[in-house]
Amino acid sequence: MTKFSKSRLETFSDGVMAIIITIMVLDIPLPEIFGFKEIMRLLSSILIFFVSFFIVGSHWNKHHNLFDIIHDVSNKIIWRNFLFLFFLSLIPIFTKWVMQNPDEIVPIIGYDLLYLLVNISYKFIWSGIIHEKGNEDIKNEIDQMKADGKFSVLHFTIMIAFLIVIIIVLFSFPRISLILFIGFPVGSSLLNLLFENNRHTRDQRIASRQNTPNRKK
Fold it and tell me: d(Cα 108, Cα 111) in Å, to the nearest integer?
């Protein structure tokens, strides 16, 4: 299997994510009339931008931690990474759609469905690295990723269940469902960051113990 240096892929991915954030902030509509309603609309747009910024930032962190354990990538991983970036690059469009229609439920449903697709495409990269041949030199890390997979499956199941519950609530309490839809990606991203940071801290402790020489009694 042909292998490629991961550095160019990481540089390209970082550049795409930086452009995504730049496009989103430029889409924030500035009011021409400085009334209370217009100012509140600006603040709500900034809140929506913050949600999108947080999502992109959390996926950059996950992407960095994932590629930090491997030395090179195959064509399969490259194209899976492109699929992930494709869905991630749609976030500015859906963010703008929600900003322009803050009281409509359809744009927010589309936004959250896109968020699920971003997570699915990231897991697609993750599973590809786990099952790819030629990763014997990082066997311990791969074994740990497989163990962490139980959490990932549980997390994704919870996301799907929560999304279904919100859609059910939508028909009876539309305003409450709007708040839940906006909070759904933030809560999920926070959970991802917490898990990634805990795993990174645990790996550092293990590596530190392995590198510490045994003291003679």
Answer: 5
Q: In a structure prediction context, what are the per-residue pLDDT tens digits for the chain, which is 217 residues long?
A: 567 778 889 999 999 999 999 999 888 888 888 888 889 888 888 888 888 888 898 889 889 888 887 888 888 999 999 999 999 999 999 988 888 887 777 887 888 889 889 988 998 998 888 777 555 555 555 556 555 555 566 666 777 777 777 777 766 666 676 677 667 777 776 666 666 555 555 555 544 544 455 444 4
Q: Is residue 154 part of a domain?
A: yes
- Predicted TM-score (pTM) of this structure: 0.75
Q: Which domain holds residue 65?
A: 3-211
Q: What are phi and psi of 32, to 5 degrees?
A: -95, -20
Tell whether 217 is covered by a domain: no
Based on the structure, what is the number of domains in the chain?
Answer: 1
